[in-house]
């Protein structure tokens, strides 16, 4: 700092020297390294590892550039650090976080419906999934519902997984036309789910699809009609001799 203050003829206030360097492991296996110094928030000098050259931002930095280029060990030292030491640490950090980076937790789903004042609201919830990106939407007859749909934020759970929801309005009786579609990296293919109503039988809640209820009702009606026809007094008894 004292050297730079002299070059810029400064002595009356505090000054800051900033240093940053980085190394990248590219997909093709090559390495990229970069170094940069700044003085009082302004670029001062930068090092290009591939070209083995220094780039300066102003006249005062030229003195440093000439000095470092005259001493080739400076560039060689930084090239070795960026291409070996830095990348070695980077590989270690990647190995530490590899399990987390590759972690995939499939979303659990729950579809609910509630009718209020003639309007049926369908809710689709996805929770316990990782990683964060997810696409969840409502379909009607296979088409995505846009303007009529409300989406919740994707929020974190205490265990590191995520939760979100989507809802839409529907006319009562049209619920069979609606499906909740969930797309996530953990799923081999997108999931499509319908709302299944809950029916209370005695003290137990049973999940019964509406189509099954309709079939049961028809069968019950047929049995009732059959038994009604066999009841005493319903048929005419033939008279003797006829």
How would you describe this protein?
Belongs to the MHC class I family. This is HA1F protein. The chain crosses the membrane at residues 206-226. It is a single-pass type I membrane protein. Residues 113-194 form the Ig-like domain. This protein has 242 residues and is α+β, with helices and mostly antiparallel strands. The chain has three domains: 2-101, MHC class I-like antigen recognition-like (Murine Class I Major Histocompatibility Complex, H2-DB, Chain A, domain 1); 108-195, Sandwich (Immunoglobulin-like); 198-226. The protein has four helices and 15 strands. The strands form four sheets. Strands 5, 6, 9, 10 and 11 form a five-stranded antiparallel β-sheet that branches. Strands 1-2-3-4 form a four-stranded antiparallel β-sheet, covered by helices on one side. It has a four-stranded antiparallel β-sheet with strand order 8-7-12-13, with no helix packed on it. Strand 14 (198-201) and strand 15 form a beta hairpin. The N and C termini lie far apart (129 Å). Mean pLDDT is 82; it is low at 199-208 and 237-242.
| Count of alpha/pi helices | 4
Structural domain tally:
3
Q: Assess the beta-strand content as a share of residues.
A: 35-45%
CATH topology of the largest domain: Murine Class I Major Histocompatibility Complex, H2-DB, Chain A, domain 1
Structural class: alpha+beta
Helix fraction, binned, reads 25-40%
Distance between the termini: 129 Å
Specify the CATH class of the largest domain. Answer: Alpha Beta
CATH superfamily of the largest domain: MHC class I-like antigen recognition-like
Question: Which second-level CATH architecture of the largest domain applies?
Answer: 2-Layer Sandwich
Rg on CA atoms, Å: 36 Å
């Amino acid at each position: 700092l004292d050297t730079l203050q002299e070059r810029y003829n400064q002595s009356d206030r505090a000054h800051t020297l900033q240093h940053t360097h980085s190394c990248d492991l590219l997909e093709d296996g090559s390495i990229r390294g970069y170094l940069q110094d700044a003085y009082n928030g302004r670029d001062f000098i930068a090092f290009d590892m591939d070209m083995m050259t220094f780039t300066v931002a102003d006249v005062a930095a030229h003195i440093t550039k000439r000095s470092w280029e005259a001493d080739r060990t400076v560039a060689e030292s930084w090239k070795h650090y960026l291409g070996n030491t830095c990348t070695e640490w980077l590989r270690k950090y990647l190995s530490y976080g590899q399990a987390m980076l590759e972690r995939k937790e499939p979303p659990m789903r729950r579809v609910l419906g509630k009718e209020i004042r003639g309007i049926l609201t369908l809710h689709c919830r996805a929770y316990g999934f990782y990683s964060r990106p997810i696409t969840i939407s409502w379909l009607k007859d296979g088409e995505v519902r846009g303007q009529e749909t409300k989406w919740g934020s994707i929020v974190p759970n205490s265990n590191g997984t995520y939760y979100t929801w989507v809802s839409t309005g529907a006319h009562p009786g049209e619920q069979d036309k609606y499906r909740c579609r969930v797309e996530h990296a953990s799923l081999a293919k997108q999931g499509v789910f319908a709302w299944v109503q809950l029916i209370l039988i005695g003290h137990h809640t049973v999940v019964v699809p509406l189509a099954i209820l309709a079939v049961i009702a028809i069968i019950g009606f047929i049995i009732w009609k059959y038994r009604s026809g066999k009841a005493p007094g319903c048929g005419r008894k033939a008279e003797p001799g006829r």
